[in-house]
Write a structure and sequence with these properties.
Radius of gyration: 17 Å
Number of strands: 10
Order of helices and strands: HEEEHEHEHEEHEEEH
Strand content: 15-25%
Mean pLDDT: 87
Largest sheet: 8 strands, mixed
CATH class: Alpha Beta
C-alpha cells in the first residue's frame, strides 16, 4: 500500500455499464462461492530468489491430485489481510493452488508503507520457484495477483519479462511507478475512481500505452483504496491514507478476477 514514487495527480475515470446491487447480489455471491472443495491452508517456507533466507506463505489447494494452475498472492504494505485464509480458500475453490506470500513474518516487519520494499519482487519469484517444484502445480500456468504494494510487484513482474508467469492482476496499484513500461503478459488492473493513494488516472495513462488486448482495466465508481478489504469499514485513515471497503466494488472485482484467471490460466 506504499504510495507511488511519483507525486499523486488528479484522477478521472468512469465505468461503463449498468449495475444494480440488490438485483445482482445473489448472482455475485454464487459466482464468488461456487467451485470445488478446497483443502485447509498450510504454512509453508521457501527461499526468496537471489536473497537467501526463508520466506513463509500460506498454501491453499483444491482437493484432488491435480495438477492445477496456481496463483501467487502478494499483500499490501500493511501485511497480510484479515481475510487471508478466506481469500486463499476462495481461489482454491475456483480450481487453483493459491500461495499467499508473507513478506514480513520472517523479517520481523509490521509494515513497509514509507519505504521502497525491494525484497518484494525476489519474494514473488521465490514463490514461483517453490510452486514449480510441486507435483500438483502446472508450472506454465501461474499468475501473480497483488494488492497495492503487492500490485506494484505484480505490475513489475508484467513489465519485466514475467519469466515463468502467465498473467498478472493488480488491485489498486501505484501505476505511476511503471509509467513508461510496456507490459509483457495479460494484465488485469482494478482501481477505485475515488482512490487518492493510487489514482485511477495514473493507471489509465499506463493502459493507453499498451498494445491492444494486453490489459483489461476496470474502474469502480465511488470506490477508494483497499475497496476489497472489509477490515477498513466505511473508511479508515492509516498513515495518512484513506482506506475504505466498498462491498459492491469488492464483489465485482472478485468476479472480474475469476473470469480473468479462467481465461488466462485454464487453457
Amino acid at each position: 500500500m506504499r504510495p507511488p514514487t511519483q507525486p499523486l495527480r488528479l484522477k478521472r475515470s468512469a465505468l461503463p455499464g449498468f449495475f444494480h446491487p440488490r438485483l445482482a447480489a445473489a448472482a455475485l455471491f454464487g459466482l464468488l462461492a461456487s467451485g470445488a472443495p478446497a483443502e485447509a491452508d498450510e504454512l509453508v517456507s521457501f527461499a526468496s530468489a537471489g536473497q537467501g533466507g526463508p520466506i513463509q506463505g500460506y498454501l491453499s489447494r483444491p482437493k484432488g491430485a491435480g495438477p492445477f494452475p496456481a496463483v501467487i498472492l502478494l499483500h499490501t504494505c500493511l501485511g497480510l489481510p484479515a481475510e487471508r485464509a478466506s481469500i486463499g480458500e476462495r481461489i482454491a475453490a475456483w480450481g487453483y493452488v493459491a500461495l499467499f506470500v508473507d513478506d514480513f513474518a520472517t523479517r520481523g516487519l509490521k509494515e513497509t508503507c514509507a519505504v521502497d520494499f525491494q525484497p518484494a519482487l525476489p519474494n514473488a519469484y521465490g514463490a514461483l520457484a517453490y510452486l514449480g517444484r510441486l507435483s500438483y502445480v502446472v508450472p506454465g500456468r501461474i499468475a501473480a495477483v497483488g494488492f497495492s504494494q503487492g500490485a506494484d510487484t505484480a505490475l513489475k513482474i508484467a513489465a519485466g519479462g514475467a519469466a515463468g508467469f502467465k498473467a498478472a492482476a493488480a488491485f489498486y496499484p501505484p501505476c505511476a511507478n511503471v509509467a513508461g513500461a510496456m507490459l509483457d503478459i495479460p494484465t488485469l488492473i482494478l482501481v477505485g475512481a475515488n482512490d487518492a493513494v493510487t489514482p485511477a488516472a495514473d493507471c489509465a495513462g499506463l493502459v493507453k500505452r499498451q498494445a491492444p488486448g494486453v490489459v483489461k482495466f476496470v474502474v469502480y465508481p465511488g470506490a477508494a483504496h483497499a475497496f476489497d478489504l472489509p477490515e477498513f469499514g466505511a473508511g479508515t485513515k492509516v498513515m495518512g491514507m484513506l482506506l475504505a471497503y466498498d462491498r459492491n466494488a469488492a464483489q465485482r472485482s472478485w468476479v472480474e478476477l475469476r473470469g480473468f484467471l479462467a481465461a488466462r490460466l485454464k487453457r
